Structure formats: C-alpha cells, structure tokens
Batch of 4 targets.
Target 1
Amino acid sequence: MTTKGQGSTSGQAAVIKAYEEKIKAQVQEAKAKLDLLEAAAREKKAHAEIAAVSGLKAKRESIEAKLQDLRATSDANVSRAKAAIEADVESFKTGVHNVGERIKPHAGAK
C-alpha cells in the first residue's frame, strides 16, 4: 500500500507541474502585453496607467509566489490553492485588458 501512496504523490506532483506550466504560460502572455502597455503609458506620460501597471506587476509576482507555494501545499488543499491562483490570474488578465483599453482608446472615441 505504501507504493500506491508514493505513486499518488508523484502523480500529484506531475499534475501540479502541468498546472504550473499552464498558469505560467497564461501569465507570460499577459506580462508581454503589460510590458507593451507600460511602454505606451510612459510614452504618453499617463501616470494613472503607469501606477496601474505597477500594481499589476505586484499581482504577477504574487501569482508566481503562490505557484511556488503550491508545490508544498498538502493534497487536501491543492484544489483550494488552484482556485485562488486561477482567480488571481483572471484578475491579472482583466487588469491588463483594462489598462490596454485606457491607453489605446478605440478609434472614433474622443
């Protein structure tokens, strides 16, 4: 029975690693957009948007820390930790989108 537990643990580690890679890819994609938006905000001297970008960078760092902590999370708490990370990722991506909307207004908007 101990081998079953060990197999379960290594299986859980593989699931967590795959999950980490998925989240890191999503965060990296949003970070690339954020970097472009930061450059545009600095060019326009848009102070509110620059501040928003700084806040989003902090949120990204928080997500990365939570991903690191996920490895040490007990099996019983993995689902809850993943849900919190996913909520943070969605909030981060929404924030990046919102900053983009403020920096690059739609054509025709005045």
Note: The chain has one domain: 2-103.
Target 2
Amino acid sequence: MVNWTNRDDEQSLDQGWGLFTVYGSEYVKDGTVQLQKYDEDEVFKDDMEAWSFVWKQASQRDKLAVKALQFVLEYNPKEYSEIQQTGEDHHETA
C-alpha cells in the first residue's frame, strides 16, 4: 500500500500537479483518485501535459513521480493505463 503524505502533496503542487480525489464527476465514481494539473498554478496547459511530465520524471527515477504513479496504479488502474499511454506517446514524439 502506497502512503501519499501531506509533504508529497506540497511537493507535487509546487511542481504544478497533484493527486486529487474526484467527487461529482460524470466520468468517474465519487472518491476516485486522479493525477491532474494543479489549476492554481498554470504550469501545465492540461492534465495530459502533467501526466507526460510525471511519466518522464518517473522514468528518470524521480522518487515523488514514481510514488505518485504507484499510488495511481493502486487506486485507479484505468487512469494509470491512460497516463502510461500518454507518457509513452509523448516520449516517442519528443
């Protein structure tokens, strides 16, 4: 079980992304964890850009990014698959 801490939250938000629990979405059930861009800081234009960033960081063994992806894999495997595909597609075109 991956333990995402308040310190992890602070560090990810400082980078312009975070793990958020979603409520009231028509696309996912309430309480689903998603990796998203942090809207308060306009570091990334959309969530997919944040996904690509985190995927790249994890591929470079960044501990926070690796931990975030492990957390998403554990709690939202469908989104993990989408992040993986986006990250791999972005890497191929870079």
Note: The mean pLDDT is 91.
Target 3
Amino acid sequence: MQQYLDLLQNIIDKGIEKESGRANMPKVIGISNAIMKFNLSEGFPLLTTKKMYWKGIIHELLWMLSGDGLSEEERYDKMYENYFKKYKDEFKQQ
C-alpha cells in the first residue's frame, strides 16, 4: 500500500499535465515509467473500494496466461456474464 501512496504523491509533485485524449474530458496528470513490484506470497495487491468478483479476476488471469485469442468483445462477454448474473439485484437497487 505504501508503494501506491508514494506513487500518487510522486504524480502530484512531479506529474505533467496533458490532454486526456478524449473529447470533453478534463486534463490528466501523469508520469512516465512508474513501476510497482509486489511479492505475491504476501497477498494480492488489489486497491479498491468496490466489491470484487474474485471468480472473474481469476478467470481473466488464467485467460491471459493461456494466450487465448478471443476478441476483446468475446472476452468481455464471457468474463462478466457471471458477474452480472450474480450481482444483478444489487445493480437494480442503485
């Protein structure tokens, strides 16, 4: 977690402002060649405030390692189909 916080501080202190590359979007601040390394034996480095669908995460990691040549749209459909089924009631409440 400290690596992430240090990286954010570095972006704030030394980042370069540029156009976002999308129409009607605010400018972005970034740096080049930032690297974060994690020892996975100490845990999975997931930083989020949202619920995560672990089965989908593992599925995507295994897919990437397999070298499967599905298109992005096909991969999206397969990867998130179960996620949306599982959490559809929660999405409806929001």
Note: Residues 72-93 form the longest helix (22 residues).
Target 4
Amino acid sequence: MGSTLEVVGAEVTANQFTTDDLTVIIGVSGGLEGNVLYGFSEDSVQAIVSVMVGEPIRSINDELALSAIGEIGNMITGNAAACLAQLGYTCNISLLVAGSLVSYHRSWSNSPAP
C-alpha cells in the first residue's frame, strides 16, 4: 500500500476492549482459544481505509470503512492462524469490529486444507 505501519505495543490482557476509537476483535477457537484485539485511532482508520479504497472516507462508522479495517485484522490474524496450523494448532477465527456507534460481525473458518 506504500505506507509503513508501526506496531506501538502488544500485551496480554483480560479486557475485551481497547480505549481506541475503533477496535477489531478476532475470536479464535479450536486448537487455541481467546480473542485478538487491534485498536485504531480514528485518524489511523481514515488513513488506512482511504489507501485501501483509493479515496477519502467520510466516517469510520460506515460499512465500507468497517469492512476494510476488519479485513486488515482478518489478514493479520489469518496469517498467524495459517502459521499455527502448520505447527498442528488448527484455529477458527471470527471477526467483530466495534466502534463507538457500531457493531459489525462476520465469522469463518481458517483451517488448513487436508
């Protein structure tokens, strides 16, 4: 996408939320269970999604923005799940994107091919 993303922190937590403007929550079940949370500021969401769709977005709470930022979380977690599957940990992932005014949910399996 021509931009550099910087990881500003990672931690194990019992909370199911972040203090950011938008949180992508990926539920993991199967060989490993829990949730992966990605917190984004409004500015970050607007910048990332604008690059992904090729034009500025008006709101981080519209369906296109939520779908795009959810897909970022899905790609990162899906890649990790594929690596874990190679180690024998078959994982299913389920996506929930939560902003201050929205809830968006999509679920699918990310199991390795037989």
Note: Helices lie at 42-53, 63-86.
